[in-house]
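User: I've been trying to design a sequence by hand for this structure and keep getting stuck. Would you show me what you'd pick, starting by listing the structure so we're on the same page?

Assistant: Good idea, let's start from the same input. This is the structure you sent:
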């Protein structure tokens, strides 16, 4: 018998937040792609102008440094302060962009 719209034959289903197989496979593939091409990626990064290089690094940081939820921000300057502190810890300067 067919299920009614909005119902499932498995009421427990997949736990919330569990990625599906396609997402997991894609993430593994991207990780492997980056790992296997690390040397070339580093060469390409070095070939960029300093400003372009740091803009790219800043964009990539969002994938490795967790973002705070909006309600966790005490004010609108928290994100800028966090980035500046992170850049200072990593590179010893904040005025690179």
């Amino acid at each position: 018998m067919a299920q009614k719209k909005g119902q499932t034959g498995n009421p427990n289903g997949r736990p919330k937040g569990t990625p599906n197989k396609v997402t997991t496979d894609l993430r593994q593939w991207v990780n492997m792609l980056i790992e296997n091409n690390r040397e070339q990626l580093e060469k390409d990064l070095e070939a960029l102008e300093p400003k372009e290089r740091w803009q790219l690094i800043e964009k990539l940081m969002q994938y490795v440094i967790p973002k705070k939820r909006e309600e966790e921000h005490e004010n609108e300057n928290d994100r800028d302060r966090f980035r500046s502190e992170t850049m200072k810890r990593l590179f010893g300067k904040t005025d690179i962009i």
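That's my pick for every position. To get oriented when you compare it with your attempt: The mean pLDDT is 80. The chain has four helices and no strands.
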